[in-house]
Write a structure and sequence with these properties.
The strands form three sheets. Strands 8-19-18-17-16-15-14-9-10-11 form a ten-stranded mixed β-sheet, with helices on both faces. The C terminus is likely disordered. Helix content is 41%, strand content 15%. The N and C termini lie close together (11 Å). The protein has two domains: 243 residues, 3-Layer(aba) Sandwich (Rossmann fold), CATH 3.40.50; 272 residues, Ribokinase (UDP-N-acetylmuramoyl-L-alanine:D-glutamate ligase, 3-Layer(aba) Sandwich).
Length: 549
């Protein structure tokens, strides 16, 4: 599924209109799909009170259709109108016919009625403004009555954490293209976006307002993915930058990538991973990376580390094999270790090399990593995944990508990406997709920019964005698990880009599974390890996922 700018969405809708798919039909589809998504989010909505904030445009029209369908599903619906709807609004008649409560904000003195409602209902749906207010430049700030309405909702949420806030298409005041937000914009629990994700949903500061993101099908033909009569939506600008045309990782896409597991296979059938990781300060990184590779199905995982660390890890990592390496000081690998690793590479026993997790940045470690990756005349290396300290050491090595000629997967978090590119973390977060695409092309490497809605970019311009933003994954060691999972998938025959994107998907879904069970506070990296094979099992057993998932 592609990520589309507002201009692309308009172009697609215009093409649909030419084919007879009218705005009215799309609005009906949108409202019905939003109501179904709300039911999935809230569970049994029978007798639950749901307040819809309805704006004057198409987003408000979608909200009115959703209100009707929610009423028909058994919810107690209240419609709160902001701004003038058309005199003969076809979406208001069904509301009147069902005697759904309607309140005009202009007649709500001091917003007293709204105050009572937001302090009693189960959910508020923001259907005031959608993509129609997005522009390539700065939008005029909200003011007056609208700010007062949104402020009432914010205050109610502070008092009642159980009040669920849901945005229709996107939170009002979030620019769909740039991710800029109006000061009055709500921070919602869920955003139900229509047809295709929009760039601003993945860009800071907008991403912080979105909550859990659901994409629903409203009947737009999949011109972007499959084409129709040879036509495709052009990658027009409108402030979308590199996000335009990026993909959005979904269940069906990930399911199609899962490696086959034939019954007659042996351990060699599922690849061999060599992990060079760990130091005295970061013993756990080696454990988590190796375990991540095993938990996604790698056949053989070998940990190359010092004898001192091997003795610490042997009782915990019982399924891996070990390649003892010389140390320069306790727990720190010697640069001489490169010879042992090159010997393994020359024998072509391993098809993946994961380098960097928890290795530290001592002078000896830096020399070792540079020797392995950049030394002249070294043997060809297995498929590479570079994480953590391997990236930090490359960041202070000018022109490293010109010397590292092999393709490789790089897995930086925003701070590591900032060091690699020479900008601030804030600048990285402001334009994540564009930066990942640019450096992947420049470095000729596959880049995994970690964080909320992780970005995977290939040198050829292919880009995928994760569907997960989970605060529970913001803890030490989760990146080591991800690097290991990607290594395990790569070992089983996936391409670098597919292994990276599928690993990101499985890792994110494992985080969601653990978060559902434990919550997002106190969740630790090792919780993900058992969840990884459970996610794979569920995905294999699932029906082909609909576009709405």
């Amino acid at each position: 599924m592609k990520i589309l700018t507002t201009a692309q969405m308009r172009q697609l809708e215009d093409s649909c209109a030419e084919d007879g798919l009218t705005t009215e039909v799309l609005m009906e589809n949108a409202g019905r799909a939003v109501a179904a998504a709300v039911k999935r989010i809230m569970g049994d909505i029978s007798q639950k009170q749901i307040l819809l904030l309805i704006g004057p445009g198409n987003n408000g029209g979608d909200g009115l259709v959703a209100a009707r369908h929610l009423h028909d599903l058994g919810a107690k619906v209240i419609v709160y109108l902001f701004g003038d709807r058309p005199t003969r609004d076809p979406q208001l008649k069904p509301i009147r016919d069902r005697r759904i409560t309607r309140i005009d904000s202009a007649k709500d003195d001091d917003l007293d009625t709204l105050s009572e409602l937001v302090n009693s209902v189960d959910a508020v749906i923001d259907a005031i403004f959608g993509t129609g207010v997005a522009t390539s430049g700065k939008s005029r700030p909200f003011g007056g009555l609208l700010v007062m309405i949104l402020d009432k909702v914010k205050k109610a949420k502070k008092k009642r954490s159980g009040l669920r806030l849901i945005a229709l298409d996107l939170p009002s005041g979030l620019n769909a293209d740039t991710g800029d937000v109006d000061p009055a914009c709500l921070q919602v629990d869920n955003t139900i976006t229509l047809a295709f994700p929009k760039p601003g949903l993945f860009k800071f500061p907008g991403v912080e307002k979105v909550g859990e993101l659901t994409v629903v099908d409203i009947g737009l033909p999949g011109y972007i993915d499959e084409g129709k009569e040879g036509r495709e939506v052009e990658e027009v600008g409108a402030g979308g930058g590199g996000e335009a045309g990026a993909g959005y990782i979904g269940d069906a896409w990930a399911k199609a990538l899962l490696p086959e597991r034939p019954s007659q296979a042996n351990k060699g059938s599922f690849g061999r991973v060599l992990v060079v990781a760990g130091s005295m300060n970061y013993v756990g990184a080696a454990y988590l990376a190796c375990s991540g590779a095993m938990r996604v199905g790698a056949g053989v995982v070998t940990l190359a580390t010092t004898g001192r660390l091997q003795s610490i890890l042997a009782s915990k990592l019982t399924e891996v094999t070990y390649l003892p390496l010389p140390e320069s000081r306790p727990g720190t690998l010697s640069p001489e270790s490169a010879r042992v690793i090159f010997r393994q590479a020359a024998q072509q026993y391993y098809n993946v090399l994961l380098l960097g997790c928890g290795m530290g940045q001592s002078e000896a470690t830096a020399k070792l990593i540079r020797t392995i990756l950049l030394a002249k005349g070294r043997p060809p290396l297995p498929s590479l995944i570079l994480d953590a300290d391997a990236l930090n050491i490359l960041a202070v090595t000018p022109g490293w990508w010109q010397r590292l000629t092999e393709d490789a997967i790089l897995t930086p978090h925003p701070g590591e990406m900032a060091r690699l590119v020479g900008i601030s973390s804030d600048e990285v977060q402001k334009d994540r997709v564009s930066i990942a695409k640019r450096v992947a092309a420049e470095w000729k490497k596959t880049v995994v920019l970690k964080g909320a809605y992780t970005v995977v970019a290939a040198p050829d311009g292919r880009t995928q964005v994760s569907n997960v933003a989970n605060a529970g994954l913001a803890s030490a060691g989760t990146g080591d698990v991800l690097a290991g999972a990607i290594a395990g998938l790569l070992a089983q025959g996936l391409s670098l880009f597919d292994a990276a994107a599928c690993g990101v998907y499985l890792h994110g879904m494992a985080g969601e599974m653990v978060s559902d069970r434990l919550g997002d506070a106190g969740m630790i990296a090792s919780d993900l390890l058992v969840a990884l094979p459970q996610v794979i099992k569920q995905l294999k057993e699932s029906e082909s996922a609909p576009i709405a998932e």
